[in-house]
Design goal:
Strand order of the largest sheet: 2-1-5-10-9-6-7-8
Strand content: 5-15%
CATH superfamily: Histone deacetylase domain
Order of helices and strands: EHHEHHEEHEHEHEEHEHEH
CATH topology: Arginase, Chain A
Shape: globular
Number of helices: 10
Length: 323
């Protein structure tokens, strides 16, 4: 076995304010008003199922992360607050765009747990390449702060786990259109993790300049101009991928956000599915050279559902079948 998809249906309950325990993608009265909505996960999984080469890949239910593991990167009081129960039908807002509903604590544990579990399976040789199809996303979450739809630093937790399991170096690569400020903050002081992130600038959250380099020159920011299309987007990544090549990581973790797509409503890049596939192929080639093919890709953003479905399918095809 070389490939695996980790997911869980309960991740669709985050953001659903209706009572009951079953996940439901039907919009409530008035429709959805939040871009990070439950049907994102269904769009992703339906796209994978509709592609014959991907439909046969093993799917495994993600397991919840141990809250104590979350506390290795996040404050104890913060983790406890994020996991506190929310009444059915209620919504608990942290800022203008980040909120919890009754299904959120479990979904957040599953999202973090899926990334950690995939890393454990990669490091013990159970499989080589993983796509973790969960939500909520994680790359904006800081040690003591939820923001940008994110609660826990899923990929940072995965990188930390890989180091615990014997990896000497880990590369975390983030091509979401928004800066991975949370991952950057969580890995800033870690000399064994290289964090590379591309982001449209200017764009929320406003961080991610080239001057932000980490405490050990272990952070690379790639600002991307609005209107940039696929060829220039992948070209902008080449110097950073050369750095990954020199690092020779034992594991590559991807923050796979697809909101750089031309159809996405939250940004102004012009990347298409082919651009995501091209970049993924380059990453897989590095993994085959340095990390025994091991790649853990974790879903982040992407808010136009048809574009998200097509982009994930292109990414997963390259991830599982590329080069």
């Amino acid at each position: 076995m070389t490939n695996m998809i980790l997911t869980h249906d309960d991740c669709r309950r985050h953001g659903d304010r209706r009572s009951g325990t079953a996940a439901n993608d039907d919009p409530p009265p008035g429709g959805f008003t939040h871009p990070e909505q439950p049907p994102r996960l269904r769009a992703v999984l339906d796209g994978l199922s509709a592609t014959s080469s991907l439909a046969t890949i093993e799917r495994r239910e993600a397991r919840e992360a141990d809250p104590d593991r979350l506390k290795t990167l996040h404050g104890s009081a913060y983790v406890d607050a994020m996991l506190a129960p929310v009444l059915e039908g209620e919504i608990d807002w942290f800022d203008a765009d980040t909120a919890r509903t009754a299904g959120s604590p479990r979904a957040a544990l599953l999202a973090a747990g899926g990334a950690i579990e995939a890393t454990e399976l990669a490091m013990n040789g159970s499989a080589q390449r993983f796509f973790v199809a969960t939500r909520p996303p994680g790359h904006h979450a800081e040690a003591h702060k939820a923001m940008g739809f994110c609660f826990f630093g899923n990929v940072a937790l995965a990188a930390e786990r890989a180091l615990e399991l014997g990896a000497s170096k880990v590369a975390v690569l983030d091509f979401d259109v928004h800066h991975g400020n949370g991952t950057q903050a969580l890995l800033w002081d870690n000399p064994d993790c290289l964090f590379v992130t591309s982001q449209q600038m200017p764009l929320w959250p406003g961080t991610g300049t080239v001057e932000e380099r980490g405490a050990h020159d272990n952070v690379i920011n790639i600002p991307i101009d609005p209107g940039t299309a696929s060829a220039a987007f992948t070209e902008a990544w080449k110097p950073a991928l050369d750095r990954v090549d020199r690092l020779q990581p034992d594991l590559i973790v991807i923050s796979a956000g697809f909101d750089a797509h031309a159809d996405d409503p939250l940004a102004q890049l012009m990347v298409d599915e082919g651009g995501f596939a091209d970049l993924t192929n380059q990453i897989v080639a590095l993994a085959k050279t340095h990390s025994s093919g091991r790649v853990v890709s974790v879903l982040e953003g992407g808010y136009d559902l048809p574009a998200l479905s097509r982009s994930v399918t292109a990414h997963a095809t390259a991830l599982f079948e590329g080069v």
